[in-house]
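User: Hello, can you help with two protein structures?

Assistant: Certainly.
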Amino acid sequence: MNILARKIRASASAVAICFAVAVSGQAWADPMRVAFGDIATVESLHLLAAFERAREKGVDVQVTFLKSEDIAAQAVVSGQADIGVGAPYALLQKVKAPIRIFMQLSKLQFYPVVNTEFYKNWKDLDGQEIAVHSRGSGTEAIMQLMAEKNGISYSSISYVPGAEVRTGALLQGNVKATIVDSSGKRVLEDKAPGKFAFLPMGDVSATDEALFANTDYLSANAKDVEILVEAILTTWREVAADPKSVTALKEKYKLLPDATPEMVADIEPYFAESAPNMPLNGGGGAAAKDDLEFYTVSGALEGDAKDLKVEDFWDLSALNNVLSRIGTK
């Protein structure tokens, strides 16, 4: 593990401790405690807006931003949080944690990228270090799958949360091979044209981020969970119909008040590009089956996809109830 990865892990541990203290000191009654394994960015604006809409419907959503998806998942497993954001498939299988995914937020839309001063293609990454978002994340699964497809293995994997952080590390020369989102891709192409190469991935369809919760919480708080699910789906559909609406939502709810003019300018291009891939029905059983196929091939899940059961990973009750009211797209 390199120095950067050790620092990030230490920081994540510190945040986890602070999170536990903060939760223990909460005085309000029955908040919906959401652990978000990432930092708040332009890419999460629509989700932050959906949280605000759930609050307007009476759900006391309290969001804590953590350093990685695995820390968020552990917070849910340990009872420090009620709902997590991520794709905790490996945890579900290996630890047999009593948690279930209940809706898909986004599909994988990432771009493996290398500094062309050092690497040109997948074969060049054999025996080299790469950086991904976090342990068990979709970014790690993609890079592992690509290693298998191209017959290579990495010397080590560094965990660097935040696509914009990895993008900056590439520009600064601190990282030579990683994976970024569409915003990062545009930044790299704009600031350093020709310096970076985006490696081919082929057809990949799987969950990037989802919402998951303890099974007891899902059954005991079904009404609140459905309010949250409906707030997200209606927001997703609004954004898909008009990506410009995200800017209006940002202003209405005063989201990301410290966003730079450059970040604000990226809102419309980002959502215009991502809108066609937004899951307007929460993923459901079809997404779950795609995930089992992808995560078994990539190595995050063990066994054969056909032998795995959707109900061991997903609870579709809340999603199906909401879709029965608002319809499917």
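That covers the first. Now for the second protein you mentioned:
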Amino acid sequence: MVHLLKDPDGWISVLKLSNMWEMEKIRELAIDKLTSIRMIPVEKIVLAKEYHVPQWLRSGYQELVDRGEMPTTEEARKISFESATGIFQIRESTMRGRNYGNGSTFTVEGVFEAELVVEERWQKDHFTPS
């Protein structure tokens, strides 16, 4: 158990099993432990998509938007080219001060709205009492 406390892979396994078995408290513990470990944005996004953690998805996308360099081809492959395209849109919009044409700018919330809604719904459906 001591190794699990210091090993992100161990906490990822706990998260995986708590999702499978719908063990909310253990899932929350695993998410808290993994959140306290410094993850790179791409890792955060990949784990968020696999284990339905919308807060990691949102923050991972935002970190990629805010960092100095563009996502690499390898990073785009890992998060999906569709997600990478969204990151590029937000970065380009921010850099050039563009908007949708109706006054709203490209944001993580706007570009990834559908994906975030799906992940939030999954979490609600599996871990919120009816």
